[in-house]
Sequence to fold (181 residues):
Amino acid sequence: MEACLLVALGDSITYGYPYGRRASWVAIAEETCGKRLVNAGVPGDTTARLLARFDADVPVHAPRYVLVLGGTNDARAGVLPREVWAHLAAICAAARGHGIVPVVGLPPPLAGPEESRLQEYRTGLGTWGQAVVDFRSPFLDAQGKVRAGLLRDGIHPTREGYRLMARALLDSRAVPELAGR
Fold:
């Protein structure tokens, strides 16, 4: 299989639900930058599932980077932050073991009570010293509230939300080959 620059390992938000892979932030970023990016998003996955399928879904593409975006389904299921961090740390270690640079995505906000748990996950990830892409901030207004028209069902981004996520990746310094595109 042809090598790619980045594999995006995640859940339905990576997949592009409800619009499909072609409308995802991964596809939008790929089209914008002209580099090969692979969407390995599976709706409903938790960070435990991301870890379980890492070996089957990531190294086969020989990427330079893997961007791991998970935690939303964990928050909705009440998974403790330390468990989420352990899964993500194991994915990052597995990536490094394959010579792949791990990047962690900070999930977009939820419009519901699970947002406080998801924020706990984000806060812990921000202290890792790991390359991070902030997918949350583009969804917020100046008061820290979710901007209207960006979440379809309180969980999944609208088409505009996915465009903002693609822009967050392209504007970040986490993947230098994409910065400023």
About this structure: Helices lie at 12-15, 25-33, 47-57, 72-77, 81-97, 115-125, 159-171. The domain at 6-171 is CATH 3.40.50.1110 (Rossmann fold). Residues 81-97 form the longest helix (17 residues).
